């Protein structure tokens, strides 16, 4: 019974979180009351209250007596929460959110490459190299472009052997998937892109920390520049 209660609560949390990301409940707007939510999802008041508490802990809503339940500003959302990241992909990420992702990647991934050059084990290097093999295959359409790229970046984070960087893998994966959403990319990895990743790996393998940092920084800045250009073009079109 306890397990069933927990599952019902999690389902409500998921549905409401998804609706918030999709804009059904915009920032500043109110959600239905706990009583109304309980009726809507056919669950107990206790389960409804627990769901509201979970969404509050994730920073998405605030619940106050006589003021109801409101969606709070995005700056308060726990964007590193696994559930929140998954709801972002189900929602409507825009170019500005993608830019925010890339700006943080710029601060994370070059440093992860720097640390990997210092602390990567032999097995860490094998995992990175395996991802490169997949990327090489993707240049000719023999592997999944997106999955190969994601595996490479995840493996570099792991190779940093820093637990804080390692726990950012879900964040980086979501950032890459949001990027995919906008590029709608179906073409294979280009040889130039593959080589840029090879360069990062070679510097890591040869324990060239600064060179690994610089190579990763180049790729991140190039991606961010493309997104900034898209945002500028979009803003110039807007009346």
Descriptive report:
The radius of gyration is 21 Å and the shape is elongated. The N and C termini lie far apart (56 Å). Helix 7 packs antiparallel against helix 9. The chain has 239 residues and is mainly α. The longest helix has 29 residues, at 209-237. Strands 1-3-2 form a 3-stranded antiparallel sheet. The model is unreliable at 1-5 (pLDDT under 50). It contains 11 helices and 3 strands; from the N terminus they run H-E-H-H-E-E-H-H-H-H-H-H-H-H.
Q: Brief overview, please?
A:
The chain has 239 residues and is mainly alpha-helical. It has helices spanning 2-22, 34-41, 45-57, 82-90, 95-119, 122-138, 145-159, 163-166, 169-183, 191-205, 209-237; strands at residues 30-31, 61-64, 68-71.
Question: Roughly how much helix do the residues carry, as a percent range?
Answer: over 70%
Q: Name the structural class.
A: mainly alpha
In the CATH scheme, the class of the largest domain would be Mainly Alpha
| CATH fold-type name of the largest domain | Four Helix Bundle (Hemerythrin (Met), subunit A)
Radius of gyration: 21 Å
Largest sheet: 3 strands, antiparallel
> What form results from the Cα inertia axes?
elongated
The parts where pLDDT drops under 50 for at least 5 residues are 1-5
Attribute tags:
2 domains, 72% helix, Arc Repressor Mutant, subunit A, 11 helices, mainly alpha, disordered N terminus, 239 residues, three-stranded antiparallel β-sheet, 3 strands, Four Helix Bundle (Hemerythrin (Met), subunit A)
Provide the fold topology.
Elements: H1 2-22, E1 30-31, H2 34-41, H3 45-57, E2 61-64, E3 68-71, H4 82-90, H5 95-119, H6 122-138, H7 145-159, H8 163-166, H9 169-183, H10 191-205, H11 209-237
Antiparallel strand pairs: 1-3, 2-3
